[in-house]
Design a protein that fits this description.
mainly alpha
Length: 173
């Protein structure tokens, strides 16, 4: 950082005491994203409990990826969500014990296993995700389509900036 004030969290100032507009805009984005992420975590918690009362949000996220991607290897799944293989392995064992996922021989490499949703897992995810989409549509019903498209474009742009940090591209949206 070229401005020592920035290192201490103080907004960069222009001569005359005016705040840097880019710094103010980034602060507003950070605040709004923080609120949004807190709410998203809360919704994720609620959704996971709808699938099963003992399910953690991380497990719900795995089910969502498996449903979207289809049968997937454990290492690929861990890479998709940016967590370690041991964490994903524990969550998959839990989901398997609930009968929501199963492991099968990977058709591309018989030594590896692919994880897939069971019929029960598919049914539960279908119910929960349909309900989630209904709430989402209800909350955004008053937004003009143009605003929704603009929001989607900006979120896509934001997500793309994280690919340089090693996050995989997610074209499923």
């Amino acid at each position: 950082m070229s401005n020592p004030a920035e290192a201490h969290g103080t907004p960069a100032m222009f001569p005359g005491g005016a705040e840097d507009p880019a710094d103010a805009a980034l602060t507003a984005v950070e605040q709004q994203l923080s609120v949004f992420l807190r709410r998203a975590r809360s919704v994720s918690q609620q959704l996971s409990r709808q699938v099963h009362p003992d399910m953690e949000p991380a497990a719900y996220g795995l089910l969502s990826v498996i449903r979207r991607q289809g049968p997937i290897r454990l290492t690929e799944l861990a890479s998709c969500i940016g967590v370690g293989k041991p964490s994903v392995s524990r969550q998959i064992a839990f989901l398997e014990s609930l009968g929501l996922v199963s492991k099968e021989a990977d058709p591309l490499d018989g030594r590896a296993q692919a994880i897939r949703l069971t019929a029960k897992g598919e049914d539960r995810m279908h119910e929960v995700q349909d309900a989630r989409r209904g709430v989402f549509r209800e909350r955004l019903a008053a937004w003009p389509a143009e605003d929704l498209n603009t929001l989607a474009a900006y979120l896509g742009k934001l997500n793309a900036t994280y690919e340089s940090d090693g996050f995989l591209r997610d074209d499923s949206a």
